[in-house]
Amino acid sequence: RSGQERTLEVIRTLIAREVGAGPLEVEDPESMLDLVRRYWSVPPEHRAGRLALFDETVGPLLRVNYFREVTLSGRPVDWFWLIDLPFLCLFIVEFSVRWVLSVRRREHRRWYFFPIFNWYDLIGLVPYTEFRIFRLFRIASIYMRLRRSELTRIGQDVISRAVAYVSNIIAEEISDAVALRILREAQDELREGTHRRILDRAVVERRERLEAVMAAQVRSVLLSERVQHRLRAVVDLYVERTAGAAAELRGVPLPSALIRPIVESAGGLVADATLRSLAETLDSPEGAEAVRQLAGAILDEVLRGPLRAELDELTEEIGVDIIEQMKQAVAVKKWAQKG
């Protein structure tokens, strides 16, 4: 038993003294076993005296050291539950109080969620030896509650800061490694042309919506005042250049200073009429359908035209370059920069 080493020494000394052995023989387990054999290896006329001496001196000491009550089934009687009972009652009261406070504070959507989220505490309350290990989880639970509390400095001490610093480094290294692996796989997928198949399938599934969005965008661009102003400027420039270079106008028997303003004015009127007609046409159902067909033609040209290969190559280069820059950003050791 625990704390009975002194009693064991007394037993050894009594047996060694009775058989006339030295102190060195008592220390060795094999020698001590031989001393016990010598203690009982006596003539029959001396055996009664040895037995009486054993009952008076050695026997009571052995009972103190090694005796243990057993049940009718032969199992040793365990009185540890008497020691464990006060702690178990304390844990039950503490768990019940936390449960009641959790319900009052509405920490969970249902009252029975608390024991589910704190299952380790609930299992630790089971009074069996196999479940006592779960009580160790309470250490982490108590530590986290004390750390969140404003009444203690737990979590702000040197050890807690060091643990948090190291854990943050480990978490960052793991997350960076996972992110780099994912980015490398994304680059490989781009190089293998997976994005082309994904793009084609996505466009086919959403073609009507894409055509509608593109048609609305084209209509918005053409009806924009800024765009119409630019178109008018282009027409004016074309008319101005044509008025000075057209061979037909040179054959007109009028001075150039008179013909040029007339041509430019007529060109401006034609441009204004064209832009107004374009705006009116786009507002009509026929114009909307024409713009939608134009958007569909543009979409077909982009996806199946002769420049599709160049577009795919450019898309791949841009995607790979973007991912490469993301990899460089992820590879930066942020914890080292903070330190």
Structural overview:
The structure is a single chain. This protein is mostly helical and 339 residues long. It folds into three domains: 5-66, no CATH class; 80-148, no CATH class; 195-305, no CATH class. It is built from 17 helices and no strands. It has helices at 5-19, 23-27, 29-40, 44-66, 80-105, 113-117, 119-124, 137-148, 158-191, 194-205, 207-222, 225-245, 247-250, 256-283, 285-304, 308-331, 334-338. The mean pLDDT is 78.
Q: What's the helix-strand series? A: HHHHHHHHHHHHHHHHH
Helix/strand/pairing category = mainly alpha
Number of domains: 3
Overall pLDDT: 78
Output the radius of gyration: 48 Å
Helix content range: over 70%
Strand content is under 5%
Number of strands: 0
Count the helices. How many? 17
Largest sheet: none
Which term fits the overall shape?
rod-shaped
Q: Roughly how many Å apart are the termini?
A: 54 Å
